[in-house]
Amino acid sequence: MKKILTTLIAAGALVTLAACSTNSSSEKSASSEKTVTFHALNGDVKVPAHPKRIAVQNYPDEVASLGANVVGTDSWAYPNTFLSSSQKKNMVDLGAPKFNLEKLIAQDPDLIITVDKDQVADYEKIAPTVLVNYQKLSGMNASLDYFAKLLNREDEKASFLADFKKEAKMQKEKLAKQAIVPSKNTISLLELQGDKIYAFGDNFARGGQALTTGLGFKQSTKMAELSKGVGYAEVNAESLAAFDADYLFVDFADKDKAQYTALENNPAWKNLKAVKEGHVVTMDYDKVYFFGGPTAAKKEMALYTDAIIKATK
């Protein structure tokens, strides 16, 4: 959306919002009675102590996992199939890469959470806005800690983590029955897209958190490097030896199945330890490629456990 058009839309919509302010929901009014100061990337922000209507980019899973009400998120995060119908009850698609301001205002948020520093000024005209430094929220525990503090939901975080650990224990027991002990095995995550091969760290979806934080697999050395860096890298078949591990997880869409067949016939692939030992686990791209929040990770554990058992029997 062009900047001038964005400004005009925001200004016009804000006038309408101001005119209707006396008819605001009692829920939002109650939530704004008390505010707290939260130190964010965009400075100290006065936010509702108990926000009731939250619009959030990139992290709807984290917010919903803490039991908070997400009223809107970006187009990329919105399709998260791991979130329940109740978690998505009030959630709408607000567009991407930037929120559609008209849709955002219509959702009447009392808190906006964004990763887009260029839009903070526009969002601040609508509701208190927190700019998130996503590079510091690497991994499920870090992100849960951050959002539990922001949303005043420490008890909900503790409850979620207890359930997460219970699920992890159950899935580890299923693997143990097949003589698979995650803590004694390394992994690497790969993805095929067209003629490209990508490797991922544990903080870029693709089951990373389910496999490491959840099931307890160790990262290969190269995977760990990606986790500490940008999170992913384009690789080629010849460089895959650097990502060799006890288990390789490869996701791809149906349209890229032929590429996987070609990879299987590549001598460099055939020479990998995981390939020789029958420890290659293929995953459906459409199920795992993008969604890596806490609830997604919790539900993915069973998905990955079953895939591991099926692939290695």
TrEMBL record:
One Pfam family assigned to this protein is Peripla_BP_2
Q: Which UniProt keywords apply?
A: Signal, Transport
InterPro entries registered for this protein in UniProt: ABC_transptr_periplasmic_BD, Bact_iron-sidero_bind
Gene Ontology process terms (BP): iron coordination entity transport
Start and end of every Fe/B12 periplasmic-binding domain? 51-312
GO cellular component labels: outer membrane-bounded periplasmic space
In which broad location class does this protein mainly occur, judging by the first location in its UniProt entry? Answer: other
> Which region is the signal sequence?
1-18
Q: What name has this protein been given in UniProt? A: Iron-hydroxamate ABC transporter substrate-binding protein
Source organism (scientific name): Lactococcus taiwanensis
